[in-house]
Amino acid sequence: MQNRSKKKVLIGDQMVGAHQPIYITAEIGINHNGDLNIAKKLIDAAKAAECNAVKFQKRTPDLCVPDTQKKKMRDTPWGYISYLDYRNKVELGLKEYREIDKYCKRIGIAWFASCWDKPSVDFMEQFNPPCFKVPSALLTDSNLLKHLRKTRKPIILSTGMSTMEQISDAVKIIGAKNLILAHCTSTYPCPPEELNLQMIQTLKQMFNCPIGYSGHEVGLPTTVAAVALGACYIERHITLDRTMWGSDQAASVEPSGFERLVKYIRVVETAMGDGIKKVYKSEFSSLQKLRKKV
Questions:
Q1: What CATH topology corresponds to 9-290?
Q2: pTM for this entry
Q3: Domain layout of the chain by residue ranges
Q4: Exposed e or buried b for every residue in 264-288, given b needs 16+ CB within 10 A?
Q5: 103, 97, 181, 201: which is closest to 139 by C-alpha?
Q6: pLDDT per residue over 210-231, tens digit each?
């Protein structure tokens, strides 16, 4: 099958696609646990690791939490509270995002968010993000997809817990222009046997847009392998400590690990080359010494 994914997408000032530097996003998500100071420390860690961007999650809890879940009780750092109360506790508001916007601009790192509902899209628009992310859970929400497309911003669409038919339907709604599809398995953390990294190649063959990878596994090697398989966008959760409270912490990467991950990715993308066989100048000495003249 022919590789169709030759299009490129501009995120901020960086082109994303074939033969372009890998765009690396550190997903903060809700690993800040509603604490702006933790959020800033995570931004600092992503910047130190030389990531291109950090990503948050934005929800309107009253809309996003199913009615059957709102009153369910759970243990949290804020006590034994309802699930709806918990979702509100970890949700950053206008004041916090204004500070995040100012902070990211000051230290020089891009930021954007996964938006879980239309009001959250409208909320984020005031900050003029370089792109929007659609979480896997919302891939089948056609109203949200259409609303996001109206922003005319690049869209990154995660494909976890979705069938090929559902992915195709979502792409038809959004359109392949200014779209990055991110292969994903929505298990936290995800066992290696369910990562199915070959799907990166499958998506490249089927869709005329750049293909990325959003990983939730433990460790770094499989994310680096995703780059070798052709992912041009990489996203992993970042945390200060994997033992911190929160549903995503165990599937996240700590700051020192993120620094290694970025370095490994940069080495691999340099090593990928252009696929055209050549004899390098560095080989001439060995060629003269070791190959017999025929």
A1: TIM Barrel (3.20.20)
A2: 0.95
A3: 9-290
A4: ebeeebeeeeeeeeeeeeeeeeeee
A5: 181
A6: 999 999 999 999 999 999 999 9
